[in-house]
TrEMBL record:
PROSITE patterns to which the protein is assigned, alphabetical: HTH_LACI_1, HTH_LACI_2
Biological source species: Sandarakinorhabdus cyanobacteriorum
Protein name, as recorded: LacI family transcriptional regulator
Pfam families with a match to the protein in the record: LacI, Peripla_BP_3
SUPFAM superfamilies in the cross-refs: lambda repressor-like DNA-binding domains (SSF47413), Periplasmic binding protein-like I (SSF53822)
Keyword Repressor annotated: no
Amino acid sequence: MPDDSLETSLADGQVRTITDLARLAGVSPGTVSRALAGNALVNARTRDRIQQLARTHGFQLNQMASNLRRQKTGVVGVAIPLGHDRRQQISDSFFMTLLGHLADELTEHGYDLMLRRVIPDRDEDWLARFTGSGMVDGLIVIGQSDQFDRIEEAAAAYLPMVVWGNHQQGQRHCVVGTDNRLGGRLAAQQLIAAGATSLMFLGDTEPMEFAARFAGAGDVAARAGVPIMACPTHLAIDRMPDEIAGHLARHAGQIDGIFAATDTLAVACLKALQDRGLAVPQRMRLVGFDDLPLAGQTVPPLTTIRQDIAAGARGLVDLLLRRLAGEKTESLVLPPELVVRATA
């Protein structure tokens, strides 16, 4: 039992070390350290009492020292490689939505986040700077961009890495992402069902995720005998509006349905269509991809393909934690969902 007189003598805020807290609780310093770390080896009642004493006296375990002893940093790296569109910003709505969910999940598991925007042609060793730095316990990569081979090479030697992206048969690196090809099929089906007879795909077809979305739309269009053209469009905000306007100027009279590779592109396209006096969906049907929060706020509200970004963030963190524990995990492919609103 703890010494009541000792608890009184330390009640003035002088609990500065684990030893102080251990004397107050009547246990060993090792028991205090394990209790504050939530270790199940400590009796639940004792653990709760020690944690309550720590809160009462404003004591916190020196996490940095604890991490050093365990050879852990408590930090997860998050890299966003932009080899395909180096002028794109991480303020893009998709990145911010996913990063928000990731930060929530990592915080729940006691990890901090180290974020880096990567321009691969400026830094060929960007992956090694994470995996060999000792500054992070593991790595989450958002998007394969044009870095598939480099990520594959790193995955051969570095286990605690999970990638948000597109999965293809036989790849080595662990991926969490949506079935992009199926999402593309759903988009094209909806456009054609809404009366579209000639389609445009708005987006860059080089990144793996976008290529799969275009391929899926192409599958459906081919079966329906509906032509579809790809119009490469950057996601960099300083280029996107002019490129979309140019595509519409050249092709608006030839198409009556647009599948935008992202909701960000779809929202910009919706404005460009309105600027040209093309009513949506009466004269032009439009479908996006992502179902970001802004998709339901456009006028008219955007029909889109939903990928469950919150579930994706949970999957990324779960798989990373399992790989940190030494487990070799399979990829997680999430099903897309058609969200019908008013643009198609």
